[in-house]
Every structure is written in structure tokens, then in C-alpha cells.
Design goal:
The structure holds two protein chains of two kinds. Chain A is mainly β. Chain A contains no helices and eleven strands. In chain A, strand 9 and strand 10 form a beta hairpin. By secondary structure, chain B is an all-beta fold. In chain B, the strands form two sheets. In chain B, strands 2, 4, 5, 9, 10 and 11 form a six-stranded mixed beta sheet that branches. In chain B, strands 1-3-8-7-6 form a five-stranded antiparallel beta sheet, with no helix packed on it. In chain B, strand 9 and strand 10 form a beta hairpin. The chains are: A mainly beta, B mainly beta. At the A-B interface, strand 10 of A face strand 4, strand 5 and strand 9 of B.
Chain lengths: 112, 114
Amino acid sequence: DTEVTQTPKHLVMGMTNKKSLKCEQHMGHRAMYWYKQKAKKPPELMFVYSYEKLSINESVPSRFSPECPNSSLLNLHLHALQPEDSALYLCASSQGWGETQYFGPGTRLLVL
Amino acid sequence: TQLLEQSPQFLSIQEGENLTVYCNSSSVFSSLQWYRQEPGEGPVLLVTVVTGGEVKKLKRLTFQFGDARKDSSLHITAAQPGDTGLYLCAGAGAGGTSYGKLTFGQGTILTVHP
């Protein structure tokens, strides 16, 4: 089983709202990732967690706040987003840092 | 900064034709993945190649990793409309600050007409 699940599938929020994206995997993977993807562009890395600790933050604005409550879960908390943050947000996981990444189906986010 | 140049960017062909997509870089990668993505969905892993010179086949798809692990190709034989989608190559950094990070190509949008 190589499944990564993400909820919600779609999200519409205003610029003053607070919302969270959720990602889950039960493959025993110890590395988890958040990516942002604009239409017809490749994914852009945002954050990497390895063994539940934040390993990489690709200079992401503080209005995006990641959290890794346990080895199977990864959250992305959103606050005071801008319309340009509208995108497909992808979660991925891998057995270990640097190994093959498996992506979830994504959350389509629209910021109004 | 590692770069991975993917070509062609767009490909529109008729059912039954063959095609090849290329990914080239001046950097060495520890592995290279190929993904296929449908609109609004996440990338789905097709293959991982690890060894220089490696060739892997997945039904009508043939993947090759260059001897120096700097380039890769995807060849589709007798394309079908179900092959339509965005194809992404992604190389995993081999060391330094790039270790483990995926460098994505810009993608190839493939359209196969019936």
C-alpha cells in the first residue's frame, strides 16, 4: 500500500480565516513533505519533516505553519493567506529522507 | 542550485504513435523518479531509477537512466488516449544542501488524440 491521504480535497477561505490541511500515511514512512503547485507548473517544496522534526523550511512565509503530531500525520495550518496562495497543496512521504516520495491527491485551495 | 531540463514541454500526437520525453541536467542525482499527473490530482509515481545505465519497462513505457546519472528518458510505444497527462521527472539530490531534495523538470503535457 502506497497511499497518502489528504483532507479536505477542496477548500475556499477568506484572507482573515484560519484553516488547516491534513495529511496521513500508514506506510511507516519517516519523512513527510509539503509542496505547493501552481497550474501547469512542477511542485515547489515548502517543508520537510524527518522523524517528526522539521528539517527543512524553504523560506516559507509564516502564514503557513506546519505541524507533525506523530509519525503518520502532517498538518499545515493556514492563517491570513493572500489570493496568490491559491494553489494545489500536496503532501508526500518517503521511507526515509532522500528516498522515493509518494504523493497524496492534494488539496485545492482558493483564497478569496 | 540543481536544474533539470525537461523536453518537450508540449506533445500532441495521434493514438498509436511513439514518443520520447527527455530530462537533462549537469548535476548528478542519487535517483530519478518519473511521475504522471492528472489535472487537480497529485503526481502518481511511475518508476524510480537508481543505477547509472538502468533501463526499466512498465508495459508500453520504457525508462532509462543515463550512465552518469545526470539524464533520463521516458519512451512510450503506441500511445493511447489514456496516456494523456502531465509527465514529470524529478531527480533526488546526491549530496550537500541538495541531498534528498527533488529537483523537478518543468513537465511535459502529453495529449494523445483518438
